[in-house]
Write a structure and sequence with these properties.
321 residues, alpha/beta, Rossmann fold, 2 domains, 5-stranded parallel sheet, 11 helices, D-isomer_DH_CS
Length: 321
Amino acid sequence: MRKPTIFITRKVPGKLLESYKDVFDIRMWEKEEEPVPREVLEKEVKQVDGLLCVLSDQVDQSVLNQSKQLKVVANMAVGFDNININYAKEMGVIVTNTPDVLSESTADLGFTLMMATARRLNEAAEYIKDGQWKNWAPFLLAGTDVYNKTLGIVGMGRIGEAIARRANGFGMTVLYHNRKRKREAERELQASYVQMDELLSQSDFVISVVPFTKETNKLFNKEAFEKMKESAVFVNISRGAVVDENALYCALKAGEIKAAGLDVFEQEPISSNHPLLELENVICLPHIGSATVQTRTAMIELCLKNIANVLEEKAPLTPVN
C-alpha cells in the first residue's frame, strides 16, 4: 500500500519527523532561511498528499491547480492570508493553522517591543557601541514610563488577551477595540471596550494584533496617527499591511507620535534602506514574534498532527476552512 507523501517547504529538525517516517514519505526543501522557489513548490504540489508551508509561501489558485491528490495544507502560522482558502475549499483541500501554541510567545515579544521602544533600549545600546557615553546626565536617553499608563489593544484575540494579562501586572489601564465585544475578557482582564477613535486618542501605547482583512488593510493610516497622542508609542506585531508605512514614517518624522516598534512589514524581508530604518525612534525586528525554540517546535508538531489526522481520515485539530 502506498504511503502518503508530504512536502515541507523549509528545513526542520529531523528529530521532529522521526515518528512520521513510517507513516509518510517525507520530502523537504533543505534550506532553512531561503524560501522554496515557486517552480519547485508547483512541482512538488503535483505529487503530494499533504503540504506543510510557512506564511511567506503563496499557496494561491495557480499552485492549487497543480495538485492532483492534495488533501491538506498545514500553515505554520496563525494567519492564513497566504493561502486561497475559498479555492482550497472548492477543491476539497483542508487548510489548517497553528493558533494557541504561539499566543504567549508572541505576547511576550509584543510587550518586550513596547517596553524596549518606550525606554529607548535600541538607542541606548548603540550609544555605548558608538563610544558616546562619557558622563551621566539627568535626562540622558530618558524614555517613557510603562507602569500605570494606558494601553490600547486593537484586536482582542488570544494574543491580545495575553498582552492584557501582562499589562495588568504593570498596573496599566487596558482599552481594547475588536470586531466583537468580549465581555468575559473584560471581566477577567479589567479591560474596557471602546471605539477605535477613543482608543487612539486616549492610549499611551497602541498595539496592533488584528488579522489582515479587507477591513484592516491600512487601518493605521494618516488619520489614525493624527488621532494619537504626540507622546504615544505604536507597536505592530500583527501583519505589516494593516499599517500605511509611509504615513507612519511621516507621523514619526513630524513628531505626531513619539516612537514605534515593528515586527512585521508590508513587504518582507525589508531592504536595508527602508525609510523606517533611518529613524532612531523606531525598533524594527525581522518577524520573530513566535521565535522561541519551544514555540516553533510546537507549531511544527501541530502542523504534522493536522496532516496526519487528515490523511488518516480523521478530523484536523485546527481547521480554518
